[in-house]
Specification:
Blueprint lengths: L6 H8 L4 H27 L18 H4 L1 H18 L5 H30 L19 H24 L3 H6 L10
Length: about 180
Amino acid sequence: MVTNAAAPGLLSSLNTRHHRAALAVYLFIVLAHWAEHVVQAIQIYVLGWPLPEARGVLGVPFPWLVTSEWMHYGYALLMLAGLIMLRPGFTGRSRVWWNISLGIQVWHHLEHLILLLQAISGSNLAGRPVPTSLIQLVVPRVELHLFYNAVVFAPMVVAMLLHRRPRPAERAAMRCACAAAPA
């Protein structure tokens, strides 16, 4: 069990000596989730599967995953927590791009919170038959989540690339060993 006294040590460790490993684990989780959405889009638009059957990779053997607002909210919360927890390790330009990703994920998280609250209460937005997010009122859910994942992922990748190749001032401010050796 992590106590409040240990939390600063954990965050410090994640953003110093374990930053590269923590980013790798986080990136793996993000890519796995992103792959689920891409596979679902392929199932719909390339293979012509009906929407209820297009459930990604894990949703085919475990269909409840696709319909579980708790699971979707949990992932949105995990994404948000990772962006917050790993943020102190970034400096300069990489911090700016990481902050952009974080800001977009805050909104994405709020959209999932709205979906979860509807699922819990049984009362859906605009009288819809299923939980519906605000932007989903104008953009279908599959396309919206492809978009959200892309606009959170793109600045995150830019941040990671800039973090690996910092300018001299950024390198001097870094507390981790993520940067590639200077040329």
